[in-house]
Amino acid sequence: LRAAAFRAPDLVRAGGEATFWWLATGAYGVFGGTPEAVLRAGDAEVPAHAAGMSMAEAGASAGRRFSPAVDVASGAGALFVRSEVVYGRPFAALEGPFALTLRSARGAAEGDETVPLGIPVAFELAVQARRDVPHPVVEIALPVGAEASDALLAAVERLPAVRRAARRAPGFLRLELGPLREEVEALIPLPLRFAVRGTVAGLAMSAYDQDVPAERSVVTGRRFRVE
């Protein structure tokens, strides 16, 4: 089991029976208790929670080295850590492993688009792989006033192409897809309701392989007139 512990991220991500038994061994105390730990990111320091998610505001900037770490303060046992770094920077169009197309009832339009206030608008996201991608992830910046409701998340997660859908603050929707072969396209309906009148921007997208996040496709957002 100690040897298998080095493959813990792969086991958890794979899902199914392998994940079940891996978590079951931990629940029965095979790996010992949960140690007290601290998450350090840049100048920030927060307790690392045994369950749930710890977040640290690091204040990293271009040209500055950044190495998040978890320090075990006391206790015996195993602590498995998966870190994700969120960068706050504008979206800039970038070619990568995916071709991303967002369509509405009017097609894949560019420029301002008029949408109704308070009535669901049917968007469709097409994700086409330019090469074999085992763990695709798509992150979508939602427009102001358009939220990812529980009903939307449940509907998206029922799609065959989607493994997991989750909200990510501030104003992001994260989709984890099943493996995509080269030239295969996944179609994902996204019904959104706009709750704020006026001109809003959003639906910029970033897609990447979870194992190679530095190589990504980026599509800039669009402007919507909500009437």
Question: What are the main properties of this structure?
Answer:
227 residues; five-stranded antiparallel sheet; 4 helices; globular
SSE blueprint:
Elements: H1 2-5, H2 8-14, H3 16-27, E1 36-41, E2 44-47, E3 69-74, E4 98-103, E5 113-115, E6 121-129, E7 136-141, H4 150-157, E8 162-168, E9 172-177, E10 185-192, E11 198-202, E12 204-209, E13 212-219, E14 222-226
Helix pairs in contact: 2-3
Please provide a written account of the structure:
- The chain is mostly beta strands and 227 residues long.
- The chain is built from 4 helices and 14 strands.
- It has a 5-stranded antiparallel sheet. Strands 2-1-3 form a 3-stranded antiparallel sheet, with no helix packed on it.
- Strand 8 and strand 9 form a beta hairpin.
- The termini are far apart.
- The model has no long low-confidence stretch (mean pLDDT 76).
